[in-house]
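INTERNAL AUDIT FORM
Audit reference: QA-55
Scope: verify that the stored structure record matches its stored sequence.
Auditor: D.O.
Record contents follow.
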Amino acid sequence: MTRYEFLKSMGFQGGALMALLASCQTNNDPTPSSSTSSSSSSSSSSSGSTSGSTSGSATSSSTVLASIDLTATAYAALKNSGGYVIVNSIVVARTAQNTYVAATQTCSHEPKKKVTFVNGEFFCSEHGARYSTTGVGLNSYGAKGLTVYTVTVNGNTLEIS
């Protein structure tokens, strides 16, 4: 994912997007991987519950997009398999004991922040796009796939990169 795509997925548009891109001094664009999971810091959250199972992995040269303190009450949904939270426009879900996945909240079908985690898969409530925990589209609306990040568990902290 390019810096432009990332900022656009975070909801920046028009002049704000151009101003952010212009302010970048280097072309060292750390990009999240497209087929692994990750965790990151939070500024907002919401919760839901579903079920599924996959495991996250770590990358050594990725930028941390968010960190989640699993002991914080704001992230209580992550104590249960199928529970999820939304942090920095990233959907973070627990799929099994100590196994987490993370994906962009922005649907690839139409760039709307409607992706959640339902029945063990990422789901966009706008038109019904469905994605596996690895980001693979599961129906025609999800055919373009979904950006999935790397989730690393360090004690009681999840890092999304």
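Auditor finding: record pair retrieved intact. The chain is about 10% helix and 25% strand.
Action required: none
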